[in-house]
Write the structure tokens for this entry.
Amino acid sequence: MTDKLTQAEFDLFRSRYLPAQVTLGTVSKVTPRVGENGELFEIQDISASYGAQFPRQFNCVIPFDETHFGWMRNYTIPEQYRLRESTERVQILTLREDAPSAVVTLLTELSEISNCHPWQDETSRFRYQLRWMTVAKQLADRFLAEVPSADVRLLAPLRAGGLAARAYDLPPDQIGAAVYKRLPMQNGENWVGIRDLDLPPIDTNSIVVVTEGCTGSGATLVATMLYLRTLGITPKRLELHTINSPQHSILFMLSAAAELGFDLIIRTAGISFREDDKLYNHWGMPNWLDSAYVLSDIGDFSTPLPARFNDQAWWNQGRKY
């Protein structure tokens, strides 16, 4: 596939998977704020809910407004509009075991670990990463079996990206990284800040893959599209590889791709159909917890393990971040 996603294609997709009364915010009028000569600049008016330990200076900031995300909050996709099978643009993973419940089991176990166990517990962190990498490796293997590996450029948002990158086994010069932060503003908007961006060389033959632990609102990928457009970079194709993505963000990302002229494919192991007020994915209500969520960032659970786990954790060997 080399054709860009057109607005007509997306409108057809949207009419099938979203009720007509829901309006998606346009992104083509969003203007990224970029530091002069690529330098860092500080963002004011960030909400007090933003942790004091997190950065406030960025190379680029994407000032989204509430029209982009407001409809997602506490909204449940109606049953008749739910995306249940793979499409040309959205590939849903079936595990090699070919058991329909395998993905559900893994996602439920991930949610249980992240909600009920501290990340500082090394065994819990290993259990989390083992399940996460089981899915990530199969996503990566199937993708690399379809495309020339020399054309792939990986953009791995830290911190989860440092873990995800291990599944692809690509040369270092094909892997880039960046720090993305969702910035809750005092006026209620949610902006995205990007810093420490290290892009690999990208041209019109490149297939750029953004890896995420779990997608929340889809803001990271849409911010990446807007920033690439600012830099004048147009890859052959853009892909998102993630463990779980809510249908809300899938629609938002495909809508943005249609507006901005990107050829986008989304590969995910699971899809959820509700987001809470913080734009976390609502996975379900298993009997071990009243409300279980697959969070939009696996965060501290992705940090490297002690070397004593290397025999069990192939992805941990030689990992620095």
Notes: The chain is about 25% helix and 20% strand.
